[in-house]
Design a protein that fits this description.
40% helix; globular; three-stranded antiparallel β-sheet; 419 residues; eight-stranded mixed β-sheet; 14 helices
Length: 419
């Protein structure tokens, strides 16, 4: 039986044309984030299963690719539960590995610590457009900065990067987890129901206000609470300043400092942004990760029709590892979706080196081969990209294929120079 030549479902092979764009985008990301003071780090792709299953990752914890114990530790015959079989898993995001990394190396790192991490993550998800089971994530995080300077820097660094890649007229949606909780408390929902209420709210863009109402009532929540909750969103629709309206309506349920902090972030970003985008307060923004404690934000791209990145503040997560909380905030670009949009728009990598192909006839004498290779070395030292290959029988088709890879100039070398 022949081996399968297709990649595993939800994973993909990357052809040279896409790889060239990916390499360029990675370069722009690293250069731009470097200007904002972020430094690159790397963490293993495998994490302890206890770290990955600590009830911080929301729905993603259901999507972990789990790894069996190895060697003598794997005892299939006596295993009674999954814990007896599994001790690790492939990381489903870069935040949990970062926090473990920081907790392990805090004494060796500056405060605040501004980290840039790029790497593959894995989720046993249902594949669809822009969603894979293995995909690259690109995260920037600031640990040890308690003020909203962290949020401002993260948003500006991310939007500047997207602007340099040619994106404009996108949205940064912003909200606050403590505002979500204040709205739920004001409406009379019990605290233990908050997460379920937020899961329903997160569907607002798909099912609308009526759909949210129907689902909350179907879940058994009091009609009075549901009505009061939905009245907040209806009131904000007609308000000139949704955040101020919400703060006034919630009264003592919302600390005034939270409103001031969020307003300051929005005002600062709008006043200093370096690319074309709209920053909007969105009270329906939830973000799925349960580790978020404060500000949350998301990139909305009209070309994609959904989120192309997001993040927020997670001040309690380091404490899960060390016992001492450390303020932390991060922003992740949806790298694969960005690449998808660039590919679909026909994006071309700018400032490419001149590409030259040297086609060698088979049987070229060794002395002549050395001369050609030396000539290629001289051209490369001048900044050209030189491909030295044997000449195919169908030279026309070979050149057509090389044209697709950007080679527009050709030199041919024959064993008989008179050809």
């Amino acid at each position: 039986m022949a081996l399968s030549k297709k990649p595993v479902t939800g994973m993909k092979d990357i052809l040279p044309a896409e790889m060239q764009i990916r390499d360029y985008v990675i370069g722009v990301i690293k250069e731009t984030y470097g200007r904002f003071g972020f430094t690159s780090i790397e963490t293993p792709c495998v994490e302890s299963i206890e770290n990955l299953s600590n009830k911080q990752g929301g729905e993603n914890e259901k999507l972990i690719f789990k790894i069996l114990k190895r060697g003598e530790k794997l005892k299939l015959e006596t295993a009674e539960s999954e814990k007896d079989l599994v001790d690790g898993g492939l990381r489903y995001d870069l935040t949990v590995p970062l926090v473990r990394y920081y907790s392990n190396h805090a004494n060796e790192l500056p405060t605040p610590f501004k980290a840039l991490q790029m790497g593959n993550v894995w989720r046993a998800d249902r594949p669809q457009r822009g969603r894979y089971r293995q995909f690259m994530q690109c995260d920037i995080d600031i640990l040890g900065e308690p003020s909203n300077l962290a949020e401002i820097e993260l948003i500006l660094a991310t939007t500047t990067t997207l602007g340099r890649l040619g994106f404009k007229d996108f949205q940064i949606r912003i909200n606050e987890r403590r505002i979500l909780k204040a709205m739920a408390a004001y409406s009379g929902f019990p605290e233990e129901a908050y997460d379920n209420v937020f899961i329903t709210l997160d569907k607002m863009d798909k099912i609308g206000l009526d759909g949210v109402e129907a689902e909350l009532l179907e879940s058994g929540y009091a009609g009075e609470s549901v009505e009061k909750y939905l009245s907040l969103f209806k009131g904000m629709e007609g308000a000139s300043d949704a955040l101020s309206y919400l703060a006034d309506t919630l009264g003592d349920y919302l600390d005034e400092e939270i409103r001031i902090n969020l307003q300051e972030i929005m005002d600062s970003v709008r006043a200093t942004k370096a690319s074309q985008f709209e920053l909007v307060f969105d009270p329906t923004l939830v973000r799925g990760m349960s580790y978020y404690t404060g500000t949350i934000f998301e990139v909305a791209m009209p070309q994609f029709g959904g989120s192309c990145g997001g993040g927020g503040r997670y001040d309690k997560m380091v404490g899960k590892f060390t016992g001492n909380d450390v303020p932390a905030c991060g922003f992740s670009i949806g790298f694969e979706r960005i690449i998808l949009l660039l590919m679909e728009s026909g994006f071309q990598v700018p400032s490419q080196p001149e590409k030259v192909a040297y086609l060698l006839e088979k049987g070229l004498p060794g002395e002549e081969l050395c001369r050609v290779i030396a000539k290629a070395g001289e051209a490369r030292s001048e900044g050209k990209q030189v491909l030295v290959v044997r000449m195919n029988k169908n030279k026309k088709f070979q050149k057509e294929q090389l044209n697709k890879d950007g080679y527009m100039e050709f030199e041919e070398f024959y064993k008989n120079p008179l050809k």
